[in-house]
């Protein structure tokens, strides 16, 4: 039972960074913009957050630095694809490649750096409950913050006027423009918000999840977060469930190794990516289902006045 509780706790921890990044990408895509640069943004945010935490001793300042780095890169991407009408897919891939190289260069001097003593978090009165306490109530505050973010985003998209406008921009930017909404500025705000959340996820990896800096440490999590938006059919609650599913698959490899299961470690390392491919194949088999939920203008350029 203790090992199962630890597996659940690790699943929540691993799923949190995927959930935060995927929710940010969901905001992007709800506005009609596809950003394939999540991996690069998360890497730059990871080194920005780690370096800030090392020099200031504050994890929260590290998170703020990661969010700032992610938002800044997303703003540059937004200018390219929203105002200059460059190809969204090519620009996103370029951002991902840039982030990988830039973070490796900047992070050279931080490969041996260490953060101070890590705080232990526990919900008073609940953390001591057998099984439930270790599994659910000894998590970093951002674990609970990710759940709150998914609920808040669900309310924003489907219960608020601003969320309705954002969805309208993603469905038909021409109609939103004709009604007088500043489509380009709305899309840039969505892209920067998504970048900030990807940055927060990247900083979480280097400051809390690991915590250290290693070149390429995001290790494909940005791509999994991107796949999660399709897996969840652009719904925040489903993003959260999908993140925990993939987090559980990721942690399962370590759990099985700890239990002495004799399976090649290389195969276990492939599990999260095999699960990603399998889920996308199953979802993509129903084109009508995808089409009914996908923002109609996703990935399409918008030319005001054209």
From TrEMBL:
Under CDD domains, the record lists: TM_PBP1_transp_TpRbsC_like
What broad class describes the main subcellular location of this protein? membrane
- Determine the domain of life of the protein's source: Bacteria
Q: Where in the cell is it found?
A: Cell membrane
Q: Tell me which InterPro entries the record gives.
A: ABC_transp_permease
Gene Ontology cellular-component terms listed: plasma membrane
Q: A Gene Ontology molecular-function term?
A: transmembrane transporter activity
Q: Which residues cross the membrane?
A: 6-26, 33-54, 60-84, 91-110, 141-158, 188-207, 213-232, 239-258, 270-290
Membrane topology is: Multi-pass membrane protein
Q: What is this protein called?
A: ABC transporter permease
Q: Supply the source organism's classification.
A: Bacteria, Pseudomonadati, Pseudomonadota, Betaproteobacteria, Burkholderiales
């Amino acid at each position: 039972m203790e090992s199962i509780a630890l597996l659940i706790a690790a699943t929540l921890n691993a799923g949190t960074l995927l959930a935060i990044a995927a929710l940010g990408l969901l905001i992007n895509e709800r506005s009609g913009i596809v950003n394939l640069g999540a991996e690069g943004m998360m890497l730059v945010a990871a080194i920005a957050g780690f370096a800030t935490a090392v020099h200031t001793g504050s994890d929260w300042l590290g998170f703020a630095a990661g969010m700032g780095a992610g938002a800044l890169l997303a703003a540059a991407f937004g200018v390219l694809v929203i105002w200059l009408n460059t190809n969204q897919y090519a620009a996103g891939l370029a951002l991902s490649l840039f982030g990988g190289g830039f973070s490796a260069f900047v992070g050279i001097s931080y490969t041996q750096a260490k953060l101070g003593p890590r705080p232990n978090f526990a919900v008073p009165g609940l953390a001591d409950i057998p099984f439930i306490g270790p599994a659910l109530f000894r998590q970093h505050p951002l674990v609970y913050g990710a759940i709150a973010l998914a609920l808040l985003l669900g309310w924003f998209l489907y219960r608020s006027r601003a969320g309705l406008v954002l969805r309208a921009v993603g469905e038909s930017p021409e109609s939103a423009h004709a009604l007088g909404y500043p489509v380009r500025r709305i899309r840039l705000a969505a892209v920067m918000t998504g970048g900030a959340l990807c940055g927060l996820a990247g900083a979480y990896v280097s400051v809390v999840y690991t915590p250290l800096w290693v070149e390429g440490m995001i290790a494909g999590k940005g791509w999994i977060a991107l796949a999660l938006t399709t897996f969840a059919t652009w719904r925040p609650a489903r993003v959260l469930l999908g993140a925990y599913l993939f987090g559980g698959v990721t942690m399962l490899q370590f759990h099985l190794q700890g239990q002495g299961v004799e399976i090649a470690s290389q195969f276990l390392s492939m599990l999260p990516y095999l699960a990603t491919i399998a889920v996308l194949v199953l979802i993509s088999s129903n084109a009508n289902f995808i089409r009914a939920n996908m923002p109609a203008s996703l990935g399409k350029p918008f030319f005001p006045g054209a």
